[in-house]
Design goal:
This protein is an all-alpha fold. It has helices spanning 2-15, 25-42, 46-55, 70-81, 86-97, 113-124, 128-141, 159-163, 169-175, 187-211. The chain has a single domain, classed as Hypothetical protein af1432 (Orthogonal Bundle), CATH 1.10.3210. The protein contains ten helices and no strands. The protein is globular, with a radius of gyration of 18 Å.
Length: 216
């Protein structure tokens, strides 16, 4: 099993080696480590969690032209090539297909504890200092402005609205990132999220002060 996991790590590392959108190999690695940490406290199938973390962005809708379920297709193909058992494959595919955030007003679809663990880990990497850096990296990769004062945040009620929204990066904090603390599933992730959430709030306060050149 360790050999198979290492083969997947090699494939994923090569797949994301040139990414500059904040969804690079180091993001995958952080989610992998966070998932393992959460699983060690919350339980669940360790192998499914590891595979789900490694494959969660294998064909993300933000990077593949908007195909929502393509990640599960690609994950299935890779796992079948490596002769994983059918039950494990189905669990991982369902996890990958149901991990993405789909809008502020769209409820999460709960599939399994393993999905909750990997989703929490992915969301933890979207907030805090790393989350701030990733938000601007992604915005830059999509040629989005950093901030447009007259463009207010929108609370999207469907995945279609969220996926096709054109906005600036600061709005992304209000449309997603600041909402994630209260959408964590596990107690372990909720605890970690508190500090990261406060850091984002402090960043935004400082951002607006500097934007408005408030020097005193």
């Amino acid at each position: 099993m360790v050999h198979k996991i290492n083969l997947i790590i090699d494939k994923i590392q090569n797949h994301f080696i040139n990414d500059t959108s904040g969804h690079d190999w180091f993001h995958i690695l952080r989610v992998y480590k966070l998932s393992q940490y959460i699983q060690s406290h919350e339980g669940g199938d360790e192998i499914v969690v590891q595979l789900g973390a490694l494959l969660h962005d294998i064909s993300d809708h933000k990077l593949n032209g908007g195909l929502l379920n393509d990640g599960g297709v690609v994950a299935r193909q890779l796992l079948e090539e490596l002769d994983f058992d059918a039950e494990t494959i189905e669990k991982v595919v369902l996890l990958v297909d149901n991990i993405s955030y789909k809008g502020a007003l769209v409820q999460d679809k709960i599939i399994s504890l393993e999905q909750q663990i990997v989703q929490d880990a992915d969301r933890l990497d979207a907030i805090g200092a790393i989350g701030i850096a990733r938000a601007f990296a992604y915005g830059g990769s999509k040629n989005r402005p950093m901030f447009t004062p007259d463009f207010s945040p929108e609370m999207h009620s469907s995945f279609e609205q969220y996926a096709h929204a054109e906005s600036h990066t600061i709005n992304h904090f209000y449309e997603k990132l600041l909402l994630l603390k209260d959408r964590m599933h596990t107690e372990t992730a909720k605890r970690i999220a508190e500090k990261r959430h406060r850091l984002m709030e402090e960043f935004l306060d400082n951002f607006y002060n500097e934007w408005n050149t408030e020097l005193e």
